[in-house]
Amino acid sequence: MNSQELFQASKQCIPGGVNSPVRAFNSVDSDPVFIARADKAYVYDVEGNQYVDFVGSWGPAILGHNNPEVASEIKKAIDNGLSFGAPTQIELELANYLTNHIPNLEMVRMVSSGTEATMSAIRLARGFTSREKIIKFAGCYHGHSDSLLVNAGSGALTQGVPSSAGVTEGVAKDTLVAKYNNLNSVKELFEANKGQIACVIVEPVAGNMNCVPPEEGFLQGLRELCDQYGAVLIFDEVMTGFRVAFAGAQEVYKVNPDLITLGKIIGGGMPVGAFGGKKEIMEKIAPLGPVYQAGTLSGNPLSMTAGLTTLKLLNKEENYQQLKESTEYLLTGLKDLASKYNIPFYTTQVGGMFGFFFTDKEVVDLEMAMQADLSKFKTFHKFMLNHGVYLAPSAFEAGFMSLAHTKADLDFVLEVAEQAFAQLA
Length: 425
Ligand SMILES: Cc1ncc(COP(=O)(O)O)c(C=O)c1O
Ligand SMILES: N[C@H](C=O)CCC(=O)O
Prior knowledge:
It catalyses: (S)-4-amino-5-oxopentanoate = 5-aminolevulinate. By secondary structure, the chain is of the alpha/beta class. Helix content is 39%, strand content 15%. The ligand N[C@H](C=O)CCC(=O)O binds at residues 20, 22, 58, 141, 154-155, 208, 239, 397.
């Protein structure tokens, strides 16, 4: 069956034909291509078409797809059994690796997804502070747990349901929403809810309203406000961890959160999540403390193996230099082409994470991201897809560079982009 036939068949038994809404390509008015395999910087659809991939499984494929060493370690681990529901040495090794390399991560608990990581971190912050309310930012996405699916980014935005049906008012009322890059909006919420805010959770580089970096002083300001009002600061580094720098956004911006959530890259492409931080807070988690959290497949040996192997391969300064330079090369090329064809175009980048918007204005928050020209994005996306470039199928997702992208790949992408811009002009 080709992609179209597979999509039609999938719609009969999977809601919308997909297992995660953004994959349906609704916001680019297209149908998804069904992927048969991936290798290095490429994904291949069921018809054998090759695409240069900037989705990278939504971030984890930072080494490129199908890395031989990661694959070989997973194959070895398979021979020992798939899952035991009991402690293993490999989860200790990954936990040690994470606590040794990430500042402020004194203890860490493994889970199976980023959603579980943020949901558990929020519960922990509430248990630790004995407070109920939380602050999040409009356009930030932290997975699909109820309290965080309020004014959320990513697929929630493009489906037109930033605050999902099914989230009760009782739950939603405890989630207060501030504006990204706007410290006053955070201060106002703290003032209006004195002694009630358990935590502030933030994507230190927002990657679910497209890519929106923090302005200078924003993260530091959050740290100060949390200290002033006795709230826990949570950096959701599910996307940025090991992506924007080896030690994540903390390394780039030098701000210390109390709790950190991780996912994506630390599973090397296998399902994973983790949350951790200060020992005094983490010791409130069961079985040490009163905050319950558990998981049948938590610390799964295949995920731990894939993650640890990936991190060890990644841990070289020159890798991060390469990711940064490749991304700069791509974005500079795109900007030059857009300007050649008089197309308003604005780009953002932190290391190997990037975004582009069809606008001539600086984008610092969700409001600005939503003002960019979505119809131009759709046309651009469709053209790129039809000519072998796989971009995230939404104007509200970040792009991801991998170490497998070569200059030849990027030159190919720029050639295609020139034709796309020419069509838009
Ligand atoms: C910043 C951030 N946090 C949390 C999540 C949720 O992770 P998962 O999809 O693994 O549940 C995502 C992505 O989905 C994310 O980008
Ligand atoms: N933006 C999301 C994660 O980062 C995209 C993944 C998904 O929801 O399917």
